[in-house]
């Protein structure tokens, strides 16, 4: 029999959960949440949080948020939403993602000429979840939450899960359990869903969809294939998988990163001369550059200088500060510890009009003790 490790506990860093957890055989636990700090009054929908243990010893404890459909939960689809990163909290999906866009007029002055442009602005307060942050300057108090009338939860029940392990409020009880990989993440996502359905048998017949964005584009098709194969093998409970959806999904890092050079040229972000120099010296490979190819490296650096002032998520918008460390052109990263966040100077934080501003509100909100208590995040305890 495999022996349990006595290594220190490994805790997630996204929201700085500075606590230890009791050594108990948690399998699945859940609790309905009627009130959330920052929201005025009781929640007008069913909201649940909890943990599901996965892995051989269930030493991976995955935290989730569940919102029951506000329409017809008995028949509406059930969506398992996987956030990207990898390592972005499920709160990103609950509060910020799958939002709408609008066009805002912007006046730009160049020399003595006036230019009227239409800038795409993300209404980042829109989301798939039924609530979002009130868009207002942070005043040191707990950010306010308001209802979202356009929530996907009007027509679907959605599970937002902190995956992979160490993301958000998910944690590992051993050093070995803290390890993750794409294949392991897929295994744990499917195991999570099957165990969740066992605890929520009323949803076993609902059509199931797996959705997500960004790096979850790696996990979602794999999870869908795994479920389909296991259904054919008769593994219980059978998951009534109807399909999957991926937004802006990662598929092949080399192809995607190499395409940025061509995209930048076609959008007139770099000159014809630099583009031709890149093509000639790099031979179309700008991601895994040969270290001995000094000419290619020089031109790639020139490219990064030319595009360094852009908000890469939306090149028509003014540059916005990332709440997480700003991703490099060739190695994006989206998660960040609270210590790192607090090291940011006030003037470098996202401004009110930036799509990333509400992520800053999430950081303040999720690190509040009253919030973690309301969400039933596991608290400090002594190991036996």
UniProtKB/TrEMBL annotation:
What keywords does the record list, in alphabetical order?
Answer: Signal
Among Gene3D superfamilies, the record links this protein to: alpha/beta hydrolase
Extract the PANTHER family matched here.
SERINE CARBOXYPEPTIDASE-LIKE 19, SERINE PROTEASE FAMILY S10 SERINE CARBOXYPEPTIDASE
One GO molecular-function entry: serine-type carboxypeptidase activity
Superkingdom of the organism of origin:
Eukaryota
* BP GO terms, sorted: proteolysis; secondary metabolic process
Q: Which organism is it from?
A: Linum tenue
Pfam family, any one: Peptidase_S10
Q: Tell me which positions the record assigns to the signal sequence.
A: 1-31
Q: Which family does it belong to?
A: Belongs to the peptidase S10 family.
What protein name does the entry list? Serine carboxypeptidase-like 18
């Amino acid at each position: 029999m495999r022996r349990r490790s006595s290594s220190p506990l490994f805790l997630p860093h996204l929201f700085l959960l500075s606590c230890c957890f009791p050594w108990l055989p948690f399998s699945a636990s859940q609790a309905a949440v009627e009130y959330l700090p920052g929201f005025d009054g009781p929640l007008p929908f069913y909201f649940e949080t909890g943990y599901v243990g996965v892995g051989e010893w269930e030493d991976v404890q995955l935290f989730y948020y569940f919102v029951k459909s506000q329409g017809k939960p008995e028949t509406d689809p059930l969506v398992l939403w996987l956030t990207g990163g990898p390592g972005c909290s499920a709160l990103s999906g609950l509060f910020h993602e799958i939002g709408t866009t609008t066009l805002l007029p912007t006046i730009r002055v160049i020399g003595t000429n006036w230019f009227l442009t239409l800038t795409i602005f993300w209404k980042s307060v829109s989301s798939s979840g039924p609530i979002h942050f009130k868009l207002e300057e942070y005043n040191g108090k707990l950010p306010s939450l308001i209802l979202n009338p356009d929530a996907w939860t009007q027509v679907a029940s959605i599970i937002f899960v902190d995956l992979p392990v160490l993301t958000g409020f998910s944690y590992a009880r051993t050093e070995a359990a803290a390890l993750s990989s794409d294949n392991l993440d897929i295994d744990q996502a499917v195991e999570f869903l099957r165990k969740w359905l066992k605890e929520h048998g009323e949803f076993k017949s609902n059509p199931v969809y797996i959705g997500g964005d960004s790096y979850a584009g790696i996990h979602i098709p794999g999870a869908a294939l795994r479920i389909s194969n296991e259904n054919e093998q008769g593994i219980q409970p059978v998951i009534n998988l109807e399909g999957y959806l991926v937004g802006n999904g990662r598929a092949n890092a080399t192809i995607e990163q190499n395409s940025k050079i061509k995209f930048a040229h076609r959008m007139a972000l770099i000159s014809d001369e630099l583009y031709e120099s890149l093509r000639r010296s790099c031979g179309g490979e700008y991601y895994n550059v040969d270290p001995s190819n000094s000419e290619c490296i020089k031109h790639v650096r020139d490219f990064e200088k030319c595009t360094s002032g852009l908000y890469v998520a939306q090149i028509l918008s003014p540059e916005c500060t990332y709440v997480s460390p700003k991703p490099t052109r060739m190695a994006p990263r989206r998660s960040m510890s609270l210590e790192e966040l607090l090291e940011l100077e006030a003037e470098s934080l996202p401004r009110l009009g930036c799509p990333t501003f509400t992520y800053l509100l999430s950081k303040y909100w999720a690190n509040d003790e009253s919030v973690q208590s309301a969400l039933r995040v596991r608290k400090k305890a002594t190991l036996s």
